[in-house]
Amino acid sequence: MKKTKSTEEKKSKTVSIPAQLFEKIEERIKGTGFASVSSYVTYVLEEILAEDDEEKSFKKEDEEKIKERLRALGYIE
């Protein structure tokens, strides 16, 4: 049976954080659209990981500059 994305999203693991941090997050999300500390933490971590992935990938223009430099040095044709 093939797992659907919604099935995958429902799976979760537990992570412990200090109670003081949990309480700070509870205060921060009051009046926002976040239903729980867990949903906020998930959102923040996904954003951080997405930024990290973006930083690792070259932009097309950066790649072209690198290729030009390598050509000028005779490493590629």
- Runs in which pLDDT lies below 50 for 5 or more consecutive residues are none
Query: Kindly, what is the distance between the CA atoms of the first and last residues, rounded to a whole number of angstroms?
Result: 49 Å
User: How many whole angstroms does the radius of gyration measure?
Assistant: 21 Å
Sheet with most strands = none
What's the helical proportion of residues?
55-70%
Order of helices and strands: HHHH
Label the structural class. mainly alpha
Number of domains: 1
Number of helices: 4
Mean pLDDT across residues: 83
Strand portion: under 5%
**How many E strands?**
0
What sort of overall outline do the alpha carbons produce when their principal axes are compared? rod-shaped
Would you write up a description of this structure?
- Helix content is 65%, strand content 0%.
- The protein has one domain.
- It is an all-alpha fold and 77 residues long.
- The chain is rod-shaped, with a radius of gyration of 21 Å.
- The model has no long low-confidence stretch (mean pLDDT 83).
What's the short story on this structure?
By secondary structure, this protein is mostly helical. The protein has helices at 5-10, 19-29, 37-56, 60-72.
Features of the shown structure:
single chain, 77 residues, mainly alpha, 4 helices, rod-shaped
